[in-house]
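Lay summary

Proteins are chains of building blocks that fold into shapes. Our project writes down both the chain and a compact code for its shape. Here are two examples, one after the other.
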Amino acid sequence: MRVVVALGGNALLQRGQPMTAEAQHTNVRIAARALADLARDHQIVVAHGNGPQVGLLALQGAAYDPAAPWPLDVLGAETEGMIGYLIEQELMNALPTGSHCATLLSRVEVDPSDPAFEDPTKPIGPVYTMAEATQAASDHGWSMVTEVTGGQRRVVPSPLPLRILGLDAIKVLLGGGHIVICAGGGGIPVVRNADGDMTGVEAVIDKDRTAALLALGLDADALLLLTDVPAVYRHYGSADQIAIDEATPDAMGELALAPGSMGPKVTAAMTFVRASGKLAGIGQLTDARAILERRAGTRILPDEAETSRNGTSGQKTPGFKGTDQPASVSPDDGGAIV
């Protein structure tokens, strides 16, 4: 099977951990083991988030020269190279000798008129206290949002991805037996100007939406959106909280999920399933194989899909299938902030 795997930025740098090279190396090593397990039996393409990392670089740049900060498209390219290198190195260490892997920078075209440019929603960077957030907003003119955990985080525009530039190069590498790491951080956001030239813009594209576009462009057999929580939850935080095992896109569309949290993952998964008629899974990084084999996570399936849980051939997946879970599974709104 050809599987596109999207790693959440917080799966690579977990909540509350210091933003150090050592912490990222440790987490990437864990991620690489899960990816290597899949790569032994399947052809994988790896995308990844960059929210914590791109926010840190932006903060460092602003501290160096507040009057001339580095643009987000350039910072996005830097994080693609940094995180891609870490994943590639640890993945190759985990795979048998003779395996092949390549990391690519990916430009992704967006619409310059996308309303997201007027409504920043994508959280990046560290979590601030209210006092720190107020100071950062004053110093740099940043927009801030309150997280469900109570902290403050910078938000930036997150336009929809329209087209992945360089898709043919990815296909050539896959044809040559390479694992490909690409579309990191949702890709480098670019727009076409009046002269027809591409230019970068101040935005961060949601990596799950780009991963869905990538999976469709590569005719992937499955899309896995991996993060640091086990599943998507109904009635999150209440006494009757339920972890969703399997559901149709229509059923998932009825959920009210935070735009800076699980919402983009569910939307991306629904988009892929509706367009391809194939499996999309959301869940914990270490459950990658189990999600693909429909033993863990939240699996989103087309309406006509057979469910493995009841073992009845031809049974439709009419809505939600879930298992009761304790009400303290995650601090987030049904999922992890990317």
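And here is the second example, written the same way.
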Amino acid sequence: MSAPIQIHASCAARGEDGVLLVGPSGSGKSDLLLRLVDAGYALVADDRVCLHAGWASAPPPLAGLLEVRGIGIVRMAWRARVGVRAVVRLVSMHERTVRLPPPPGRDTVTGLPEFFLDPARASAVARVGLILDCVVGYRQLLDEGQM
């Protein structure tokens, strides 16, 4: 990915590590982003993300804005850019119910590890944290042959 691109996604940062939240409109990207920010993550971008050379940022007109359904668009502190480590593709629990999925594949746009997550689960924020822990090496993600 050499030329800058803009994608329909949201992005949060935990320290130096960013995670892209990807899914269709209404899938829960902004809501999960709000919960991540409430849990101590930094807002990077909501709704649109600029990607360039492994870095994510908000398009300038949207920087610091978060859409909160039922409340409106809220201006808040944001992080200018972050290195992206993983893609979390938002799906409903009914779309992907594999108890122990195969090792993560790669997102076709970014080439980053891609995970599937139901954003409506109460554990969604904790799961994003585990995903980041695994991709940066703080924890080990095992496959069935390693158990």
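What can we say about the second shape? DSSP finds two helices and ten strands in the chain.
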